[in-house]
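User: Quick sanity check before I run a bigger batch. Here is a single chain. Can you write out its predicted 3D structure?
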Amino acid sequence: MKVSKQAALVRNHLFTEAHLTSWQAEGVYRIRRLASRISELKNAGYEIEKARCTDATGQPYTRYSFSKAQKRTRAPRKEPVQSQRRYTVAELQAGYADYAMKQDYFDDRYSAESDARDFARYMETHA
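Assistant: Done. Predicted structure follows.
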């Protein structure tokens, strides 16, 4: 799975160094949203551990590192997570209109909850 340039910088850092914090990421790589890059790497299949620490002044921070098993191999250890499809409002409206046209709404046996579940299943199979 392809990752962004910033996520690749984080990945390379974690392979060469023991850990990375948001302050290090911002100061060295100009990465302001380290947690997003970590999430991107996790979704790509990398095993990343996080440790909550406090500095000398009592301020909390998070330290990210690869698991020991991940450090031994350059390839992701897990299967990549497939991102969920995002729909526009127009696509949802069109999908629901299509769904509603195929249903018999003159029969009151469906509750609002079952209609919502049916619509969700319909969108998964027809989108």
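The chain has two domains: 5-72, 89-126.

User: Great, the batch can go ahead then.
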